[in-house]
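Aim 2, interim progress. The first record below pairs a target sequence with its structure tokens.
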Amino acid sequence: MEGLIIDDNRNTADALQQMLALLDLSARVAYGSSAAMSLLRSFVPKFICLDINMPGVDGTEILAYLKREPRLMKIPVVVITSDDQPETSQRVMRGGAHAILIKPATIDALEGALKKSGVLR
């Protein structure tokens, strides 16, 4: 099962990739929204870990795209963000995210979010 990490912060994205590996999951990494949109033209991941605050196209716009694109709309999305405002959580959950984690995410929190999303049992 291969997922996709979308985050403009390389350190965060790489750390998430390592945590996923510890959970026996693999993921490609897109360092930013442009790279993600390009990759999503040809790759349909089994799950997505998505940052919200990115320059250019932000995570909420990517989430909206995912949920209106028929071949991508059923992919579980875990939002991982530094924005801990309740309005942000409500907006992304209404937008179709399956779970939201506040950075820095721990492996236990990530595992719980992936279970909630149906990625892990």
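The second target in this work package is listed in the same format:
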Amino acid sequence: MSIRYTERLAEAGIEPSVGSVGDSYDNALAETINGLYKTELVHCQGPWRNMQDLEMATFGWVDWFNNRRLLGPIGNIPPAEAEENFYAQRDVLDMVA
């Protein structure tokens, strides 16, 4: 399958976005987030009546995950707030320089 995938990308003129051979780090974050999503939402709050209900619940989970979830390693603030702080600090440093 991976050989056919690589060949198809080459035919389409697309460069694959993967790490070095044997490097699993490219997919580690995606797999972690997918696992959290399935554990915290899909399996715990289901069964779902239909795909639309799951999609709406997914929007809410993603909003919570990015904007309201308090994350200890970054000071018990939401990831979106940490990102805002990062760019605000960078902008201040750019003005000073």
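DSSP finds four helices and no strands in the chain. This observation will shape the mutagenesis plan for the next reporting period.
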